[in-house]
Amino acid sequence: MIRRLIPRPLLSITLFILWVVLNNEVSIATMMLGFLLALTMPLVVRPFWPDGPRLVRPGMAFSFALRVLTDIVVANWSVSRRVVGPIRNLSPAFVEVPLDVRDPFVATILASIVSLTPGTVSIDVDQNHWVLKVHALDAPDHEALVHQIKWRYEKPIREIFAC
Predict the structure, then answer these.
(1) Are 145 and 108 in contact (CB under 8 A)?
(2) SS3 45
(3) What is the pLDDT of residue 62?
(4) What are phi and psi of 148, to 5 degrees?
(5) Rounded to an integer, what distance in angstroms lies between the CA atom of residue 98 and that of residue 133?
(6) Is 84 exposed, middle or buried (0-12, 13-18, 19+ CB in 10 A)?
(7) pLDDT at res. 55
(8) Taking the domains of the chain in order of start, what are their residue ranges?
(9) Helix spans in 85-154 (H)
């Protein structure tokens, strides 16, 4: 019953908080309108919201998030050193990473993680052929980049979401 009334509780809470913060005032009218929006907006967008995959290994998800954050910091340092150095030493490339993931939501998570890591940008997730297209700032060895993405990011994501 409550799940039908509030299909996305976290979204509702976030909408309510954002409404109050953006209005920069705490009054009964602001709170009531925020509450009304927080209840109705998730119901309105419900048909467009995909069902996400089920998280089966939350502990692994936490350690994976720490790994991604560490990779972001290390990649920032590496990219900054490469950009400051001679540009002729860079080997930019477009690389296609064949995916074992077959869930569109999980593939999008993977593409987002690749884009968050400095030096790489996800271009497309081809769901017809299940290929992630990536642009890398410096990829002298395409196979090494493919291997790194598959084993460092895709494999743990598949285990976290059991797909």
Answers:
(1) no
(2) helix
(3) 93
(4) -65, -45
(5) 9
(6) exposed
(7) 84
(8) 2-48, 58-161
(9) 104-116, 142-149
Q: What is the pTM of this model?
A: 0.74
Q: What are the pLDDT digits (tens) for 34-71? A: 999 999 998 888 888 777 788 889 889 999 999 999 99
Residues of the chain where predicted confidence (pLDDT) is lower than 50 = none
Return the structure tokens found at 76: 């920032």
Task: Please give the backbone phi and psi of residue 5, each rounded to the nearest 5 degrees, phi first.
Answer: -75, -40
pLDDT at 76: 92
What's the start-to-end Cα distance of the chain, in Å? Answer: 30
Cα separation, 33 vs 46, whole angstroms: 20
The one-character DSSP state at 151 is: I
DSSP string, 4-24: HH-S-HHHHHHHHHHHHHHHT
Output the pLDDT for position 5.
76
Paired tokens of 91 = 């080997």
pLDDT of residue 89: 82
Tokens at 50, concatenated:
């995909």
Task: Report the candidate in 116, 121, 118, 143 with the shortest Cα–Cα distance to residue 132.
Answer: 121
Say what the pLDDT of residue 1 is: 66
Query: The sheet that has 120-126: what strands, in order across it?
Result: 93-98, 131-136, 120-126
Instruction: For residue 80, give the H/E element and its range.
Output: helix 58-84
